[in-house]
Amino acid sequence: MTPSGDQLEDAVVSHIEDRPISSILIIIAMQAEALPLVNKFQLTEELSMLPKGVPWVCYRGIYKNLNINLIWPGKDLSLGVDSVGTVSASLVTYASIQALKPDLIINAGTAGGFKAKGASVGDVFLASACAFHDRRIPIPVFDMYGIGLRQAFSSPNLLKELNLKVGKLSTGDSLDMSPQDEASIVANDATIKDMEGAAVAYVADLLKVPAIFVKAVTDIVDGEKPTAEEFLQNLVAVTAALDQAVTQVLDFINGKCLSQL
Amino acid sequence: MTPSGDQLEDAVVSHIEDRPISSILIIIAMQAEALPLVNKFQLTEELSMLPKGVPWVCYRGIYKNLNINLIWPGKDLSLGVDSVGTVSASLVTYASIQALKPDLIINAGTAGGFKAKGASVGDVFLASACAFHDRRIPIPVFDMYGIGLRQAFSSPNLLKELNLKVGKLSTGDSLDMSPQDEASIVANDATIKDMEGAAVAYVADLLKVPAIFVKAVTDIVDGEKPTAEEFLQNLVAVTAALDQAVTQVLDFINGKCLSQL
Fold this sequence. Notes:
The structure is a homodimer. Helices cover 38% and strands 25% of the residues of chain A.
């Protein structure tokens, strides 16, 4: 961040820090993670906000004093699977920030966890920071750009109130973990691993929107079960825990300013 | 692509196939690759098109009968290095397609080449197809989504006229190549390797804009020199070859319809 960038960010944040949070953008990767929240908050589909032809899905509604906007990148048009990963996540984050100018982004989703760092299946984490583990650019300064470390918006009161676990999140476009990924994840000091968080953080930082990351653990990366199998086995149950946590987060946010989080 | 998607694409392409190409969007990753083209075509900076606060750079101008728009993601605001890789490339591609509705995208840049597949330093390739090599998702169908294979817009006359080399392009966010990347690059049957192409192809396909990929080889991936060193050593000279090839491509495109490429 340049000094002028810092000043801009300070100005934007201070402007909205003194009034209650009004507009929330929830960014999710998979339909199975999103639909329970659509039902719970009785959101309705919004078709006009996004460009024509893309599979992105947007639902909106009001919960207590909050305008909730829930976005996910939808099913790949040719293959029919959820458009997971950093490219889709960054595009929907960009487009929905431009359209909605939200006060706060919540990136909610499932993640792999490291038992060596204290994670168990079903745990819900609030990430303290995000970084990439699969962008290795061994040229000075470019190496740091590749890692792309960004702090989540500081929310100590939220963390204390909800009794969530806290840990660093590492993001990559593969569900598995190569030895190179593992070395980078260790270097990132990560407790949880996903496929979108650091990309959402990048775009949120670019456009100066505060972002928090709520991630529920579906599988233990350093455990004995194969990741894909464990992920699919636990997805439904863990999504329920995620949705409960997101609801608690929204209940806590309701009526508060950014500086009270 | 769903049947309705195919029909939409056919309709869009046939609509513009019968008139000369007018608007070209050139997407580049690095300032060092872009500035020689800015100078050559005497382009002028356009500040109004892109959102405030982002480091993205847009230059515009007229060359022969073509409206040239040259975009690159600019220097990272906190680190000062070029914003390389798939996330930045997908964001600038998305934003500039939305703003400009170009007839054709040219993704121009440098790449690593495989000598085992016939590539040498200084070669300029027209990619026949793009795919990712660092998005491993070992769940049926998700695996294909991760690879994200997309054909370049077919341009047999351009290829013949300019005597460019042709080969498949594989994209990943690392400058180096892990054994897992290498296995995926071999599976992708790739001759050249870059950090943006498949992301540009993804967004171009999403928004139904034809795209071609002009890539000049700065380093031999399966050679003896370290990639980073060879890349930096050859960047300036190879960029000159790239700019010459882009000029030849524009000269060929001028006055032609998409169907004549």
